[in-house]
Write the structure tokens for this entry.
Amino acid sequence: MSKSNPPTQRADSPEYLQRKSFFDQLITVYGRKPVLEILQDYSLKIFRVHLADSNRGGGIIDQIKQLAIQRNIEVCFHSRTELSRISRNSKQDQGAACDIHCPGYMPYRQALQTDQSATLIALDGVTNPQNLGMIIRSVTASPAYGLLLPSKGTADISPLVIKASAGTLFKGNILRCDSLLDALKDFKQQGYEVCTLSSHESTAITDFAPTAPIIFVLGNETEGVSREIAALSDHRIGIPMANGVESLNVAVTAALIAFRL
């Protein structure tokens, strides 16, 4: 996952702030086949295509170039080193990347300034790309406003995540943060409450009725949420289990909570 940077301008000028907001909403996807498939989806707004100048002609590379020309999308050529800085994955970018403009992909503070009553789902330590993709798909399809996604300790947005999300990654609201703990503290200052899942001393999900804006935090299946996040929690809910089953996959849990709202 990566973003291009806007040209240097005065940091307080309206033009700079507008361009920064635009560039903050770019998702960069890498890999020849993923880039080609994205170009074939005319519902997506693609800002730029990036290609390594060392790519040989023919095959998928030529198809990428032709589609970019048909769609009037700028194609930028880079050295392999330069392209690796854009893709942030030199081992898997295959000399191709593209920037997709996604209005719902934004820093969390931007959403906090505009909507202070939305219900969110946050992830803490979910490192499996397929789980992340399936969670994005469920949250996007549900009544929940969006997903609060930290850059640290969570799977990167990759072609595998995009595939598992069935393309919904580009349609929903994904709020980025560096530190989940710091972001949750900011949300709590704005009146939000934090809810974590627990099998001990918890309220059944069917009985939980929040009275304030809420953020549900999901941890990984092995360790759950971190100790720091658990200490910040205002509520603990549980999903009643039958037949001795101890837990559910985190993606299934996310779907249950998102559609229970």
User: Anything to note?
Assistant: The mean pLDDT is 90. The longest strand covers residues 45-52. Residues 129-141 form the longest helix (13 residues). Residues 127 and 155 are 4 Å apart (CA to CA).
